[in-house]
């Protein structure tokens, strides 16, 4: 079994000027290795730069739209991560409407042109792993207002370890 899952959305407008686009918090049974993250828009053809970052965040977590992980191999079981709105352990969500007061630790900061979109695929030694029972979750975050607004897609792919 591959045990790879994606948490993603498409064609929506971020709910806040600067927000967590996707958030996955490991549960108590499996560590998670983050293998890919992406963001892009289809709303217009105007060139603009956008900041983006991968981070961890400790409680209090973002308030999210519940988004359950989807398996990459259809015969795989459901993920140990379930959709949730509070960023709690063992849950995932997208499009935060509130960021929560928990400290964010930036692991990878970047910028991209919105005409091209953004894709992060780490080499094996650069994969980000959050251990089971970690005190923090993994976030795909835009630290400044996302422009242009509307018709964005984003997500993260992770593998369940152990």
Secondary-structure topology with pairs:
Blueprint (H helix, E strand, L loop, with lengths): L3 E9 L6 E7 L6 E10 L7 E10 L4 E4 L3 E2 L10 E2 L7 E8 L5 E10 L4 E3 L7 E3 L5 E7 L9 E9 L2
Parallel strand pairs: 7-8
Antiparallel strand pairs: 1-6, 1-13, 2-8, 2-12, 3-10, 3-11, 3-13, 4-9, 4-12, 5-8
3D architecture notes:
This protein is mostly beta strands and 162 residues long. It has no helices and 13 strands. The protein has strands spanning 4-12, 19-25, 32-41, 49-58, 63-66, 70-71, 82-83, 91-98, 104-113, 118-120, 128-130, 136-142, 152-160. Strands 2, 4, 5, 7, 8, 9 and 12 form a 7-stranded mixed sheet that branches. Strands 1, 3, 6, 10, 11 and 13 form a 6-stranded antiparallel sheet that branches. The radius of gyration is 15 Å and the shape is globular. 36% of the residues are buried.
């Amino acid at each position: 079994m591959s045990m790879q899952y994606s948490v993603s959305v498409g064609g929506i407008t971020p709910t806040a000027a600067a927000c967590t686009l996707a958030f996955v918090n490991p549960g108590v049974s499996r560590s998670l290795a983050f293998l890919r993250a992406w963001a892009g828009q289809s709303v217009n053809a105007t060139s603009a730069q956008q900041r983006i970052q991968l981070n961890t965040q400790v409680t209090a977590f973002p308030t999210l739209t519940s988004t359950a992980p989807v398996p990459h191999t259809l015969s795989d079981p459901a993920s140990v991560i379930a959709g949730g709105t509070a960023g709690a352990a063992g849950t995932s969500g997208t499009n935060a409407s509130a960021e929560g007061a928990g400290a964010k630790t930036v692991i990878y900061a970047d910028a991209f042109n919105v005409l091209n979109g953004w894709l992060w695929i780490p080499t094996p030694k650069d994969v980000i792993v959050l251990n089971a029972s970690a005190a923090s979750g993994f976030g795909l975050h835009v630290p400044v207002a996302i422009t242009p607004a509307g018709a964005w897609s984003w997500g993260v792919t992770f593998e369940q370890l152990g």
